[in-house]
Structures are given as C-alpha cells and as structure tokens.
Design brief:
Elements lengths: L13 H9 L5 E6 L19 E8 L5 E7 L2
Antiparallel strand pairs: 1-3, 2-3
Amino acid sequence: MKAVATSDLSVGGAHLAATAIRDGLVDEIRLYLNPVAVGAGKAALPNAVRLDLALVDEHRFGNGVVYLAYSTRK
C-alpha cells in the first residue's frame, strides 16, 4: 500500500502501529501525551525496537496535553 499511495497513510491502534514500526514502514510518529497516570495499558511505542527519531513539531495545550511529531531517520 505504501509504495503505491498518492497521499499520506495513517495507522492507529497500539498493535497495528507497533507492527508497522517494527517492519520499518513508518516515516513519522505523532503523539498526543495526556498527563494522566493510569498505572497500566498499552505502550505507545513497541518494545525492543530502536528508533532514531528527530523532533519536527511540538505544541503544548493549556490543559497539559503535549503534541509531539517525530520523523524517523533511516
């Protein structure tokens, strides 16, 4: 799909995104970090994967949420 796409593709969900990241298909990672401690849950990024990321954008919202955008360096 990525090779023939004419526009950006989005992947959501921890499991599907982790698979795409592990397979080297992700060019950019966008995260919204919400300052809530829940003690458990799925990780935003997969375990045992080394990513070289470059911060390309960030924004802090008044409610404490932080938007971060990273490009993957290959």
